[in-house]
Automatic annotation (TrEMBL):
One of its GO terms (molecular function) is exonuclease activity. Keywords: Exonuclease, Hydrolase, Nuclease. This is Exonuclease. It holds the Pfam family Rv2179c-like. Residues 3-159 form the 3'-5' exoribonuclease Rv2179c-like domain. It comes from Chitinophaga agrisoli. Transmembrane segments: none annotated.
Length: 172
């Protein structure tokens, strides 16, 4: 299994009515040098300016981004290239990130290379710490910038730390 840490930025709360505007992915292995960055042209006329502001983008900028179908095809090809076996989707907020990635894969390519399940980094940490109030974010080394590759990399660093320092049994 190959763990791929993913982070999504969007212009609203749900796929379809709103758009995934960018995402980053990192193959979780050291030295975290296999990354993917996608910038997607909006698929809807609806957008939330506050959601765009989180990513420091304007609607006009996102309208110049790449065709979502091509981005998702490129992402599927990248996953196949970096994974020798089954890819495992993991993210900081898999409820949000997963719904966009899964929806976009099915809408634009007809299939999701991750299958039908995802993993949540925060829940994994809470289980290891045996405390549902604990947060893993102090384990990131890369600053959380809302650039999706930076954020995915920071989360991947935290997952590696869970293996090294917390004894998480995981094949990376």
């Amino acid at each position: 299994m190959a763990y791929i840490m993913v982070d999504v930025e969007s212009d609203g709360p749900i796929p379809g009515d709103y758009s995934m505007i960018s995402f980053g992915a990192v193959l979780v292995n050291e030295p975290l040098d296999k990354t993917f960055y996608g910038r997607l042209k909006p698929i809807s006329t609806q957008y939330n300016p506050e959601a765009l502001a989180v990513s420091n983008l304007t609607r006009e900028e996102t309208l110049q981004f790449d065709d979502p179908k091509q981005v998702m095809k490129n992402f599927a090809a990248w996953i196949k290239e970096v994974c020798d076996d089954r890819p495992i989707f993991i993210s900081d907020n898999n409820g949000f990130d997963w719904m966009f990635i899964c929806w976009y894969f099915h809408r634009f390519t007809g299939a999701n290379p991750f299958g039908f399940s995802s993993q949540n980094l925060g829940s994994l940490y809470k289980g290891l710490a045996k405390d549902t109030f604990k947060n893993f974010k102090h384990l990131r080394r890369t600053k959380h910038t809302h650039h999706p590759v930076d954020d995915a990399k920071g989360n991947a660093e935290a997952l590696i730390t869970l293996k090294r320092e917390y004894g998480l049994k995981i094949k990376l």
